[in-house]
Amino acid sequence: MTDQERVTVTCAAGRITGVSDGEIVRFHSIPYSVIPGPFEDARRIPRDLRELVDATVHRPERIALSIVAPADAKALSDLPVVVYIHGGRFEHGTHGDRRADGAPNAREGIITVHIGYRVKLEGFARFHDDEPNHFRGIDDCQLGLEWVQHNIEAFGGDPTNVTLVGQSAGATAALWLARRDHYRGAFRRILAMSPCFPRESFEKRRGSLRMALGKPVTRASLTRLAEEKPAVLQRAYNRFRAVQGLDMALGPAGFDGSELADLPILLTSTRDEHYDMPIGRAIDAKGLGPTMVRLLARRMGVRGSVTEYLRSALALDPDRPMGRLIGDSANRRWVSQAADEAPGPVWVAEFIADSRPALHCEEIPQIFGLDPAMQTGAIRALFVDFVRGGTPDWKRYSATTGRHATILNIATNGVTLATDTLKMVREAFSPAR
After folding, report:
1. Could you read off the pLDDT of 26-59 as tens digits, one per residue?
2. What PANTHER family is this protein classified in (predicted)?
3. How many structural domains compose the chain?
């Protein structure tokens, strides 16, 4: 890269070399842990292994983190820090999610860190000797956050002003890391966009995985498959995944918002989340949406009146009731539950897209300033102000004093105040324990 120069930062983790274009400096794929085996817990990197790290090239296959900062940032600049955890159903994704690129943040004087973590069975299968509520993928993120605490100051960041941001599975991970049994003070606030939790625990699904594998679900058994027959393990996972239907196959389950630490949380969802999922689109296109909602609502988590839920779904969009059930079941119900139960200050926002559906993931480039048309608008300003320690300029959400929310239009950048935007999912989906 002839138009970029190398930049080396010396920190507790060693000497790390990235690349700068004179305005923005990037450090790619920095190792933050040692993983002794695919199904073993990660460990901190021993001091005697800390040396010169070449962070000039993105290596998506690694469990690592990346940093994007202003080129003029230096130790004691005390810039706010965003730590981003990517989504991907706990099945895919890396620490290089371009939809959340940190360049616009760097131009605003904000440092962005992307943390990668183990996905699929390596990150989220559980074994008999695992501690309660422990997942290797989540623990990977925990070690990444610790790395940030120990090293980000050398890159110009303020370790006491870290905002944890996650979308979809990444939002789930962020909320799990905010549980009191996990929280270690590594971040000060959370932006959780469209979190998603499985409806059942891994323990309840262990039998279907055992049938797919044809082997016991043990650390030793899965390790042998991963090292000797990875294609066999992948096919078995695909069979296991198919059994779960429209639900998340893996991930933390049994969410209880009252177990969260007392932290400021901004919770968001898109109004139409998974309208684009092919199976839902096909069902609705054939006019079978109402029938399938009646058949599948209980299985997908509806505990209130199915008739009332369907009536509300049809009132919002008479042509897409199945698409709405998929999104409400996968994401919006968890936003509602977290908002009602979290002990700290909570703000709720819902993304719409004017006359078209607002789909899952569409808000990411808007929030991170990657859409040129939205770089100076209200949505981007909300994010930047929140990261700098400000609070949204609408009333907090509270189950007792008012379920206040705001509507953010990603098509026009408009902002509208609202109340109880998640009423239909709150009444339909009771909290899952």
Report:
1. 999 999 999 999 999 999 998 776 688 999 999 9
2. CARBOXYLIC ESTER HYDROLASE (PTHR43142:SF1)
3. 1
